[in-house]
UniProtKB/TrEMBL annotation:
Annotated protein name in UniProt: Hexosyltransferase
Record keywords, A-Z: Glycoprotein, Glycosyltransferase, Golgi apparatus, Membrane, Signal-anchor, Transferase, Transmembrane, Transmembrane helix
Family of the protein in this entry: Belongs to the glycosyltransferase 31 family.
Higher taxonomy: Eukaryota, Metazoa, Chordata, Craniata, Vertebrata
GO molecular function terms listed in the Swiss-Prot or TrEMBL record: hexosyltransferase activity; UDP-glycosyltransferase activity
Compartments where found: Golgi apparatus membrane
InterPro entries per the UniProt record, alphabetical: Glyco_trans_31 (IPR002659)
An example Gene Ontology CC term for this record: Golgi membrane
Organism for this UniProt entry: Lepisosteus oculatus
Amino acid sequence: MLTTRDRWKIYKTACLMFFVAVITLTVLQRGSTYSGAQFREDSPSKQESLSEGVHHMQKKGLLPGTEGFWKASKQASATEKPRVTASRAPRTWDVTTTNCTANFNFTQMEWFGGLESNFKQFLLYRHCRYFPMTINHPEKCKGEIHLLIVVKSIITQYDRREVIRKTWGREKEANGKRIKTLFLLGAPSKEEEKANHQKLLEYEDYKYGDILQWDFMDSFFNLTLKEVHFLKWFSTYCENVHYIFKGDDDVFVSIENIVEFLDGSKIRNLFVGDVLYKAKPIRKKENKYYVPQALYNKTHYPPYAGGGGFLMDGPLARRLFGACETLDLYPIDDVFLGMCLEVLRVTPVKHNAFKTFGLVKNKSSKLNREPCFFKSMIVVHKLLPPDLMRMWKLVNSNLVCSRKVNIL
Ligand SMILES: *[C@@H]1O[C@H](CO)[C@@H](O)[C@H](O)[C@H]1NC(C)=O
Ligand SMILES: *[C@@H]1O[C@H](CO)[C@@H](O)[C@H](O)[C@H]1NC(C)=O
Ligand SMILES: *[C@@H]1O[C@H](CO)[C@@H](O)[C@H](O)[C@H]1NC(C)=O
Ligand SMILES: *[C@@H]1O[C@H](CO)[C@@H](O)[C@H](O)[C@H]1NC(C)=O
Ligand SMILES: *[C@@H]1O[C@H](CO)[C@@H](O)[C@H](O)[C@H]1NC(C)=O
């Protein structure tokens, strides 16, 4: 027979062992989390939960084909913000010199000779991954930021930047949520732009403090460089940014709708935009997006969101930086980002309020001038400064719309 005292001893020992086991397990788990690679691939179970999330969104009317349209349902809104984790990127921009010599290895390849000159140039310099910064703003991400707006721009398009600052890109704080804006630029591609425009740009930046500029030539194929430079910059300086809207400088954007959409969102790995799921590489030489077989030989691109405007969460952007680093650069920037997402096994989500591939085929369609339509959208491609200003004023006037316009 056990005495009460013996039972007490056994009980104490058991408790102690349990306690030790819990501590050991916690320590082991931490260890395996922190010693991981720069980014982790999603396990199949996470994949499942993501597709469940998509299914969930469909049911809640977040996705096309249902009536709720872009508004997230209120049931889905009792959620935590995406967890912002510490990054392993350096603390400052660590690229200070350019030493980019052409990689003539390609010239020995049989197929290289047959390429168009822009593809040749792309391949010869593809290995030059990062360049120094000519204008930086390390302080931009100080503190907690709800939404960081980043806009791809080029040095000569100051009028577009100007109107964006006055319209959808205006920095503000609403209900304690801070919204900040940045423009991403490369170096001027023409000699005559160098002298005059660079000085003007520096003045513009002195006035507004919202320009990031890197020392690579701003060309169409170098847009991918802009993408990876931004991801690296973001991973370096922006620990406490919850969401990023990234877009072109010739689009209409409703930040109000974005904020409302995010309030109702609880998706991990948020990546939403005008997604193409099975786009085919374009093989017609006269097309702007033509890609030769030698550069990409699969029949389809991975799912990707049109670069005109998309939304992602901060932690995902940091993981994308690591994922992109495992890939060779690809000349089309939004397709490249789709490739990086594929590495992470994250599927971008299509949303009908993002119209980056043009609105309707018919340019004279009434929809292009309908403010109630714009009021219900998140991104609409494409509006140049005067039209953007006009539409912005209409949408933000005492506009009465009977209901959110349903599209197509
Ligand atoms: C640039 O790199 C090449 C080869 O990587 C090297 O031979 C050369 O010395 C470097 N030049 C400078 C200025 O660092
Ligand atoms: C060119 O080829 C050589 C030999 O295969 C290789 O060592 C070198 O890294 C290549 N250069 C570049 C820039 O990839
Ligand atoms: C991209 O920029 C680099 C650095 O300015 C330049 O050497 C390269 O030729 C550019 N590539 C293309 C395809 O324009
Ligand atoms: C496609 O390209 C990859 C890598 O460049 C190569 O390994 C593969 O053999 C190519 N496939 C076809 C069908 O050409
Ligand atoms: C485009 O839309 C306008 C107005 O809705 C119409 O008059 C015109 O016929 C349409 N054009 C085409 C090519 O469909």
